[in-house]
Amino acid sequence: MFYLIANKIVFYLVINKEMFNFGSGGKLLPALFREFSELSEQGSTENPEINPL
User: Fold this and answer.
1) How far apart are CA 15 and CA 32, in angstroms?
2) Crossing angle of helices 28-46/2-21, nearest 10°?
3) Residue 2 in contact with residue 52, Cβ under 8 Å?
4) Are the C-beta atoms of 12 and 32 separated by less than 8 Å?
5) 10 Å Cβ neighbour count for 28?
6) Alpha-carbon distances, residue 39 vs 18, 20, 48 (angstroms)
7) Residue 53 — very low, low, confident or very high, per pLDDT cuts 50/70/90?
8) pTM here?
């Protein structure tokens, strides 16, 4: 579970870095936080004993 979340974070960070390299800024950062909060909510509802953070 944690590996999947960490993998997704790394993926978004790599994409975000590429976006910065092309000069369009960090527009995917809010999407990262939004998706991570959704993942946290799903994890807390499905597995209350497991905290992904």
Assistant:
1) 11
2) 170
3) yes
4) yes
5) 18
6) 24, 25, 13
7) low
8) 0.31
Q: Tokens representing 32?
A: 């990262």
Q: Are 16 and 9 in contact (CB under 8 A)?
A: no
User: 12 is written with which tokens?
Assistant: 């978004």
Q: How confident is the model at residue 8 (pLDDT cuts 50, 70, 90)?
A: confident
Q: How far apart are CA 2 and CA 28, in angstroms?
A: 21
Alpha carbons 1 and 6: distance in angstroms, whole number: 9
What one-letter code names the amino acid at 11?
Answer: F
Q: One-letter amino acid identity for 49?
A: E
